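This week, look over our next protein:
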Amino acid sequence: MTAPAAVLATVLAITAVGSSVLLWFAPTFGQLRRGYDALTGTSIALLALGAWAAFDGPMGSLEGTELATQGELTRALLLGASAATLVAVLARSLRAPGPLVRLLGAVASLAGVASFLPLAVIRAERGGVGGLGQGVVELALGALLMGGIWVGLILGHWYLVERRLSNRYMMWIAWTNVAAIGAGLGSVLLSWRSPAPCEGLPAGGEFEQCSMLFSPVLQIGSMSVILGLGVLSLLALIAGFNVKLAREGGRSIQASTGMFYLAVILAPAVEFAAKVRFF
């Protein structure tokens, strides 16, 4: 499981789950045009589908072990979350009643959140510090970080479509972004308790050529944690600018969207640094 594909799949999964919760349960639901829900929901479905595909190899390596069932369950739940999201998007596009659409979105979100449990079981069974509970918390914190920034990027662009839209929604996502930075800090600090990449693997084992799987830099002590905290400090600075720009409204919202461009590039680096130690 300690492979780049597993890390990529985990980051894609938490981005999809965090974004799904913010889409269907945010103040924006039912207040913006249906196109916003369709755009955001479709991107979420694709992220979940990407996670499902990326987990194919890593979960396949568990075949024949006691964890094989957990791997299959993770992929099934992510595929279900992707399908349920598309159904919710279709219902919204067909002008289905809001409560029904939200219910479908809730099913999609719950399927995504449920996928965290088997992932945490795999982590715990492979010797992860803190057991099942810490694994779930790490994934949830990462989901808030990635979801808050992904939804913020799309919402900022939506202001180009609905130019008279109140800036209250941009203020909401800006403060959500601040909370997401706090969640990201927790995610990185909790990863500090987990083993470094390839640590403790026997010579001649499955990952004998560890340096070919991960950058050798990440194997230097707590370098992944240091990198995560460094990038997170830049995200914190961006979050502060976003609050100020969103409060001003008007053209400043376009500037805030530009900040989200930077954030959506930096945030995955934070979670890659944290989740490289997850399994």
In short: The radius of gyration is 19 Å. Confidence is low (pLDDT under 50) at residues 200-209. DSSP finds eleven helices and no strands in the chain.
